[in-house]
Design a protein that fits this description.
By secondary structure, this protein is α+β, with helices and mostly antiparallel strands. The chain contains twelve helices and 37 strands. It folds into four domains: about 150 residues, Jelly Rolls (Sandwich), CATH 2.60.120; about 110 residues, Immunoglobulins (Immunoglobulin-like); about 325 residues, Alpha-Beta Barrel (TIM Barrel), CATH 3.20.20; about 110 residues, Immunoglobulin-like. About 20% of the residues lie in helices and about 35% in strands. The relative contact order is 0.07.
């Protein structure tokens, strides 16, 4: 085994094969160590065996041991001992089978030999040779293949083997999963017409929901040279996932594709929920989000766009930190350098072009989503990013498998929105995404695009038609009705898309404005007419002041402006490197004080007789909330420590008459620093904050309204 592993390592330095053709002459050194010899390429798809002919010439007799070595399209090593089939006067004949039960052994990984190994062009074919003799030798090698014989009789029908059913009990909103192998192997496991099976689940309330199987493989994740390395384990298999949405006894039937009689099935009991449910738009007050269990949901989080390098190791650490800081929401991209399913093979070896999905990226996204569920973090999953179909902004077009230069269907990136073949390929991808990830209750939304208006030659009418078509397709696929949205970089883009009912909430960027409050207010105003929840899903300021002060102000301003969530910071690396995650905690805790669906708060205009001090306010239902801040806070780096400021009394107009309990809160720590009572007379409430350095928050409630709320 040590010798074979040595040979495997030698493959990392394989010389170029050039234009060699068979037969080839190999020079063999004598000794105990094997030598690895590259052979001319062979097309092994649709082949059942390799025929190998060897003739050795040596001055002295010796012992020849040889193994054929294949490195598949992803570079994984398989080897097979070459066994003599027929000795001849000139040539010895060897037959190496390529079928499902062939004696090929994986080395350095755990994926067994299967049809997918040779269904794609392999990287290398080599001969690993050990020549034990007193002198070197020459070895003449000839090699051909044997095609798969096509019998006239009908191919055997699909059978499901090694079947693992759904568990007998599962909490509501948890994933239950069944698993099976398929025989014969599916040649194109990502084509919808070749998916072997689906489940029909009948709920206690009598609804039927169909969920499709999806192809999968397990992996081990290891860090090597501070980069994530994924090692395949086990054979390609099939799974069906389901998330029960109601308590009670569920029945499921398993159907082979094209058949009306089930081949299996059973029952499972959905028990009391351990989670709070899926995110929905509130029907009564559609500015806000809520959970299917009825709780108010105010998203607080940051962008976790992508994790190159250390990959899911960094991602899982960030999710844990976000959760510990009180965050409940993040946004991640299915981009080529993170968890895209399809991309060009030249970019990374685990990609295989259009319609052939990267199972290691699919596994990595599973790992990410499982961690989010475990930590109570909801995810906006971005399905496309602008650079994939742009020529000028973050362009990735040269590596995009949709590009005609790489064999794709598109002459130019903008054709993605209108070319029928491109639409078909994307619908196929949506089917796989929903089948594999739709059962995660903590997917908040499918985000069809990031900054779609930065794609090449963006056209509003094309985009609107595409968004409606794909959103409807998604809605028909998804039995759990995850929210659907998209994203534009420019604040006034694109009313033709945002006005479509299939797009369920709006989003904006808020970049490079020194006054983040002003910028957030601008983007809010631009989306007000659509009467949907609105999110500032990217904000940051580049340069000297891109740290704690900017993050802090973006969070607190978003609570007082007509946004439906905290503004979402962009630079997760800066947040990690500057140890800013803990700054979310006071805001996250404060944001959960009020169910904004039930307490109707309106903007409260207030003037403070003090230069360089600004105030944002909300009032309603006996509650007053104020954020008082130095206007120059945006213009100073994080280490700025001004002297404490004492403001004079100021008046708040409009609260209920009578006594109010007022808390003054430090927004940096969340600590209540002073509690006092104040009386509202003739419609005016006089307040004076204690001294503060950067900003301070006021929370005041009418005693009458509080007593009234308790009596209800």
């Amino acid at each position: 085994m040590r010798l074979l592993l040595l040979g495997m390592l030698l493959s990392l330095c394989l010389p170029c094969r050039g234009e060699k053709v068979y037969p080839v002459l190999l020079e063999l050194p004598c000794g105990q160590e094997p030598s690895l010899h590259p052979l001319p390429a062979l097309d092994l798809s649709e082949k059942e065996a390799i025929l190998l002919k060897l003739r050795i010439e040596s001055a002295l007799p010796g012992q020849l041991s040889s193994w054929l070595v294949i490195r598949d399209a992803e570079g994984w090593w398989y080897q097979c001992k070459v066994e003599l089939e027929k000795a001849g006067l000139d040539w010895d004949l060897f037959r190496v089978p390529l079928g499902f039960d062939s004696p090929w052994i994986p080395l350095g990984h755990g994926a067994p030999w299967e049809k997918t190994v040779i269904s794609r062009p392999i990287q290398d074919l080599s001969l690993l040779v050990r020549w034990e003799s007193g002198s070197p030798a020459s070895l003449l090698v000839d090699c051909t293949t044997v095609k798969v014989r096509r019998a006239e009789e009908k191919e055997p029908g699909t059978r499901l083997v090694d079947f693992t059913p759904f568990p007998k009990k599962v909490p509501v909103y948890d994933i239950c999963e069944l698993r099976f192998l398929c025989t014969p192997e599916v040649k194109h496991p990502f084509l919808p017409q070749q998916i072997p099976a689906a489940c029909v689940v009948r709920t206690p309330s009598g609804h039927e929901q169909r969920v499709e199987a999806f192809a999968s493989r397990e992996y081990l994740s290891r860090l090597r040279n501070d980069r994530e390395n994924l090692i395949p384990v086990g054979s390609l298999h099939w799974k069906i996932r389901y998330c029960p949405m109601e308590k009670g006894l569920h029945r499921y039937d398993l159907f082979l594709r094209g058949q009306k009689t089930p081949v299996g099935g059973g029952f499972f009991q959905a028990e009391e929920a351990s989670k709070r449910g899926l995110v929905e738009v509130c029907t009564e007050t559609p500015r806000w989000f809520e959970l299917s269990e009825g709780d108010f949901f105010y998203p607080v989080g940051i962008n976790l766009r992508a994790f190159p390098g250390r990959g899911s190791w960094d991602a899982l650490a960030m999710i844990e930190d976000l959760s510990q800081a009180g965050g409940n929401w993040c946004r991640t991209w299915m981009c080529s350098w993170w968890t895209a399913l399809e991309w060009s093979h030249e970019y990374e070896r685990h990609y295989h072009g259009l319609g052939k999905y990267s199972l290691q990226n699919a596994w990595k996204l599973d790992r990410f989503l499982r961690a989010c569920e475990q930590h109570g973090v909801y995810v906006q999953l971005v399905l496309n990013n602008h650079g994939q179909f742009s020529l000028h902004v973050d362009s990735e077009w040269r590596d995009n498998p949709y590009n005609k230069d790489l064999g794709g269907p598109l002459e130019s990136p903008e054709d993605f929105f209108i070319e029928e073949r491109a639409k078909e390929l994307f619908r196929n991808r949506l089917l796989y995404i929903v089948s594999r990830y739709g059962a995660y209750s903590h997917i908040m939304a499918w985000e069809l695009w990031n900054e779609v208006d930065l794609t090449h030659r963006y056209q509003s009418d094309w985009s609107s038609i595409w968004h409606v078509e794909m959103a409807r397709f998604l809605r028909a696929l998804d039995p759990y009705r995850h929210l659907i949205t998209t994203h534009f970089v420019r604040a006034r883009m694109d009313p033709l898309v945002w006005s479509q009912p299939e797009i369920e909430f709006t989003q904006s960027d808020a970049y490079n404005e020194s006054d983040i409050v002003k910028r957030l207010d601008q983007v809010c105003r631009s989306k007000r007419s659509f009467q949907k929840p609105h999110i500032a899903n990217e904000f940051w300021r580049q340069g000297e002041f891109d740290g704690r002060n900017h993050l802090h102000c973006g969070l607190w301003a978003s609570y007082f402006l007509p946004l439906s969530a905290s503004a979402m910071a962009w630079e997760w690396r800066r947040i990690r490197n500057l140890d800013l995650m803990e700054d979310l905690s006071p805001f996250a805790s404060f944001s959960q004080r009020v169910d904004r669906r039930r307490v109707h708060l309106s903007p409260l205009p207030i003037e403070i007789p003090q230069d360089n001090v600004s105030i944002l306010g909300l009032a309603g239902d006996g509650l007053i909330i104020l954020w008082i801040y130095r206007a120059s806070l945006f213009e100073h780096p994080d280490h700025w420590r001004p002297e404490a400021l004492q403001l004079p009394f100021f008046e708040v107009e409009g609260p209920p008459e009578g006594l109010h309990v007022v808390q003054w809160i430090d927004p940096w720590s969340g600590e209540v620093i002073q509690v006092e009572s104040a009386s509202c007379k003739d419609g005016l409430l006089r307040l004076q904050p204690p001294p503060f350095t950067k900003d301070i928050v006021c929370w005041g409630r009418s005693v009458k309204s509080e007593i009234g709320a308790l009596s209800q």
